[in-house]
Amino acid sequence: MASTSAPTATLDGWVKRPFTGAGITHDCFEKGSGPGVVLIPEIPGITPEVLGLAEHLVGQGFTVVVPSPFGEPGRAATTGSVLPTVARLCVSAEFRAFALNAQRPITAYLRAVAADLAARTPGGGVGVIGMCFSGGFALAAAVDDTVLAAVASQPSVPFPLGERRRADPGMSRPEFDRVAERAASGELCAIGLRFSNDPVSRSARFRTLKERLGDAFEVITLDSSEGNPTGFRSSAHSVLTTELRETPGHPALLARERVVAFLRERLAIPGSTA
User: What is the pLDDT of residue 1?
Assistant: First the structure.
């Protein structure tokens, strides 16, 4: 049967605890067993759709930690939740939403979260998934050896005002150099996902990443052009959450299946069922 909405879930069963790293403290929510995955929420925060993805990862055999650096956990995305969150993030020194060639304090925090999770879970390393505002944070976190797999879904920071920001990789040059070094040595692989007509996550950023990371960076682009066969809007944005339908053959569902298989491969989980 065709699905008409994105999968959702609640915070039921998730263990909440504050975590401090790099001088920053945020609540983190944890559930599951097996190798670790850090799932960074998208704007406006840990929505029911983000939790739907988190629950799917738990069901696939991962220990999932979802940090809550912004927004109200569990609250649905509405104009009343999105706009205040965007306003706060635009001026926050922790995120540096418009800065070029920037090292963002939040990524140091996420590296600490990843290192803590890696120390408590099997496999010797973790995966990190970022989406939308946090998409590029997953790659910036991969400067550390504990991150073996990074997934950047519709990375949108710095916000795409002008050609330089559209092509910026979302991290500082030293961070990008380190990520590229790890990719070249085979220590790190990454996936990037976006919709073809996404006005916020532009193809120029993906070209920048692909040029440096080469075959270690797999690009998945979903067709959102006018008249596309799936019926995606030209403004379609959230590949793994809002736009996903659990209908066989749905492009976003196939993208999620590929992400799960990728994480299983990189984190050495037996089997490949996604």
Answer: 56
Considering the domain boundaries, does residue 1 fall inside one?
no
Q: What letter does residue 272 receive in the DSSP assignment?
A: -
| Owning domain of residue 204 | 15-267
Ramachandran sector of residue 45 (left: φ over 0; alpha: ψ -120 to 50; beta: rest): left
Q: Is the pLDDT of residue 59 over 70?
A: yes
pTM of structure: 0.96
Of 82, 2, 16, 6, nearest in space to 49 by CA: 6
Angle at which helices 203-213 and 173-185 pack, to 10 degrees? Answer: 50
Nearest to 204 by CA among 252, 245, 168, 154: 168
155 phi and psi angles, rounded to 5 deg:
-60, 130
Average pLDDT score over the chain? 95
Residue 92 falls within a domain, yes or no?
yes
